[in-house]
Amino acid sequence: MSGHSHWASIKHKKGAEDAKRSKVFSKVSKLISVAVREKGADPATNPSLRTAIEQAKQVNMPKENIERSIKKGTGELAGESLDSFIFEAFGPDNVALIIEGITDNKNRTLGDIKQILSQHNGKLAGEGSIKWMFERKGVISIAEKRTEELELKIIESGAEDIKWQDDMADVITKPEELEQVKSILEKEGLKIENSSLGWIPKEEVDANKEKLEKLFESLDDNDSVQNIYSNAKW
């Protein structure tokens, strides 16, 4: 599992289970609706919507579901009142966490997240007490075996860094260069698993991976949680 954004691995692990697929569809639907509401319904001019639609396709979300989510975002169809959130927290071993999501009831979600953290030796942190440990970066996930040739292609694309976990590469870019680097990598024939803005730790710390995995799985089971970032080494 990636030590930064957990979307790609969660998608592969849960996408094959019908009961879980419904939950994934619900999360991506919210992502699409909020992206439309914030920056419009045209993917050509709304990178957030384009990314959300790509994620929907990666989990085989039906076209009609995507279109329905877009219409909810524009107000053509009635939908929930959705708000984005970012919670800062400490996990087991004082690992720093940033938890992003979308909810129709922030107070309820806050209580749910507090309970999950408490069950896994974690706790919420004050606003700003965690973010300074991270940098906002573009993150492009590629499922490829590590080779010198691949690393050279990534470096030549203009990427700032590459973080490997097994056969998954997180390609790190400047936020404003995310789309440009992604386009170059696609032209090189590389399959992009996911691309989005994410939070990259300035420094990584040692932590108990098993405890963290259990926490991440519990957080991901919450309908409102979209992404989890940590400064743990993997």
UniProtKB/TrEMBL annotation:
SUPFAM superfamilies: YebC-like (SSF75625)
Domain TACO1/YebC-like second and third: 84-232
GO biological process terms on file: regulation of DNA-templated transcription
Gene3D superfamilies assigned to the protein according to its UniProt record, in alphabetical order: 1.10.10.200, 3.30.70.980
Gene Ontology cellular-component terms listed: cytoplasm
Subcellular location: Cytoplasm
Main location: cytoplasm
Domain annotation TACO1/YebC-like N-terminal: ranges: 5-76
Alphabetized GO MF terms: DNA binding
Keyword Transcription regulation: yes
Keywords, comma-separated and alphabetical: Cytoplasm, DNA-binding, Transcription, Transcription regulation
Family named by the database record: Belongs to the TACO1 family.
Protein name per the record: Probable transcriptional regulatory protein A2365_00175
Taxonomic source organism: Candidatus Nealsonbacteria bacterium RIFOXYB1_FULL_40_15
